[in-house]
User: Fold these one by one.
Assistant:
Number 1:
Amino acid sequence: MLTAEENETLTRTGPDTPMGRMMRRFWLPVASAHQVAAPDGAPLRTQLLGEHLVVFRDTDGNLGVLDEFCVHRRASLALGRNEEGGLRCLLHGWKFTCDGTIVETPNHKSANVREKIKQPSYPVIEAGGMIWTYIGDPAQQPPFQKYGWFDAPSENYVVLRINNPANYLQLYEGGVDSAHVGILHMNMMNPGWKDSAFVDGKTNQDGGKGWGGEAGDYGEDGKAGMYMSSTVFEETPDLGIEDTAYGFQYAALRDTGQDENGDPAWSVRITPVMFPAGRIIPANAFQFYVFEIPMTDEMTATYLVFHGSGPQDRDVIIDTMGLADLRFWTYEGCDFQASWNDRLGQDRDSMDRNWSGFAGIEQEDSVIAMSMTPIVDRTKEYLVPSDEAVIRLRRRLLDSVALNEAGGNPLGLTVEDYSNVVAVPDTVIPKSADWTDLARGNSETGRTVRGEAAE
Ligand code: FES
Ligand SMILES: [Fe+2]
């Protein structure tokens, strides 16, 4: 449970809020590259931390991120003509280059306006199939942070964007809530289903949501084993949590009896959480990155990145995530659309064999976040021990906000390379071993090494 004030601090991300100021210290994703793939294509109208932006690719392939509303009289540049090296406002034809320079003002012959003002613009970098921008104070612009999939061949990763109508924090909390995975996303809670739930390493109850199987085994229909193995079905794992320089990492620790030496053992799944908005979900077939980026306080751009060791099949991933139903989401459109008019699309008739009545994990996560109201009232919760990672997420975010408000660097800002931060899918180790040894890079990334200058 939080105080009303803490809940406000955590969930409000506009320019005059503590969280908004903290998040503005970072480069953040503003689009998936496929949304503005073509030179001179349609500009993308989007939002980031409450700011209205337009993203476009000019004739030469350069990217621009501009304020959406024309500096002249505020028409939306998302309607503009994108041609001949710039974006032209429809209303009076003012033309802007990628950095906001005004090159034509048809209704004003003198050059004085062109020389004096610009359309507000932001720096932009395309990396890893995503378009990143920095909307904070130019004097504080940090180095661009590198993630593990940036250097991979583009066919080895898939990027999906889902605009979810809910505050970023309830989606982020879902991402660190290990206990829900074996409940919401499974068919294991009905006692009558439990014993019969597996056939050939995948569930037989859900039309193949992609659970079960061995690492790298996609199964006959290409789905089984992509995500995680059966150890996830213990709903009350012990949690190990370690604070890191960039946030924290946690391990879900599930009893597996004894290992081959007869020592007590458990299966470990490690999730690193990289502030202000990222995490990596343990999955067998890939490193599965998720970023929960506030568009507004009530709308979140969720970016999913599936990075495997070989070529990835986007359609299989979309299907497995429960996103293949075009009524709810399309790859091109990105908006998650569900309405209480039909109970957010829940199929009650399927619930004699499907726990949730929804098609798969991303659809389930989206509707649950929506169902909580746009911004959860966290003064009314009743938390239990398995919510410990959720509590840590909030505490560390508040720590990071406090550091920034005091004039310091928020958590994670000085990390330049996240390549050594990884999720660890189910791995059995003796209980006497230290789970943090499974991914030393998670503990060490961003740490100041003794002898180096303090950050
Ligand atoms: S409003 Fe854009 S040119 Fe006039
Ligand atoms: Fe989930």
Note: Residues 196-226, 450-455 have pLDDT under 50 and may be disordered.
Number 2:
Amino acid sequence: MATQAPACAIKKCETSSCATCHCCKKNLCLDHLKEHKDQLNAQLVPLANQINTFLDGLEHCTPASSSSFKELEQWRIEAHKTVDQFYERMCYELFEERKNKPMEKLTTIRNTLDTLIRKQGATHENIDSLVNDMQLIEQEINGLKNIQVNLRPLVIDVNSVIQSNSSNR
Ligand SMILES: [Zn+2]
Ligand SMILES: [Zn+2]
């Protein structure tokens, strides 16, 4: 005599099982085995739909759609401002500020000269002193025109943009 097949694992089903499902190891009758398979297969379509949704989402995922983009954009604007401010400061310190001294000296010399012209009282010492002062100022002006700057390219520290995405490890 053949041994009796175990009962179907589905509650209230009184039919004997005809097979054991490989995925869940349950003994099932033919009807319930079919129902079980249909239920599993029915889950495939929603998964396929989800894949399409994800693909669509990724396709439309641009930097601008990310919340961090605004922060990065703000960082860019601030960085440009910092570079501009540094440039302005260097322009002032290297060129504008250095013009002040020779300009002040020239004003003083011109006042002296005006007085001498008005009084028509020039001496040899006056002329020698004025010529000497003018030569020194000429050297200062030439120096201003030939200022050398050694510039190195600006290197951005990538660590200044810290990614904090815990799911991206
Ligand atoms: Zn199963
Ligand atoms: Zn059954």
Note: Residues 63-150 form one domain.
